Request: fold
Amino acid sequence: MTVKRTRGRPPAGDVADRRTAILDAARGQFAAQGFGGTSMRSIAREAGVDVSLISHYFGDKSGLLVATMQLPVNPIEKIASVVEDGPDGMAERLLRTFLSSWDPHRDIFSSMYRTTMGSGDSQAPMLQLARNILITTLVKVLEGDDRDVRAALISGQLIGLATMRYVISIPAVADAPVEDLVRLYSPGMQVLIDA
Reply:
């Protein structure tokens, strides 16, 4: 007997299994093909679900990437709240949000960083997150022909600061209050935002 696949939401008992199948398929495809080389349709096909179910659970492909990483904070929501007020003062908002979100989860950030940098994998989830969520979102709010480069440099500044604070744990940076870091670090970042 063949069971016909239906569109939309599965029966209540199948929800956890379907979500797990989607996440497993997405993890495998993101790892093998990267964010850009993976489609929602190919994930749906591998998971045996309709593509609309992926949208129902995770929104879009960026939301699915974040869900596969099981992060303690949702970077899509965080960066959206930062950029919604535009470029004026964005460096302060970005730094304050980034640091206050990750400070309670230093060990998770450190582990993600070490795994990513140690793997040599250009498609590692943390790198995909930086490229396809952080940089892409910044490019949308920045102006000018060089906004792609500036968005990448801003992302690099955040990753550099996080590396010193959470991974290498340089005491002057690791122990500094968030507001001190925002005050000292944001002017240089704001130059890239305003350029």
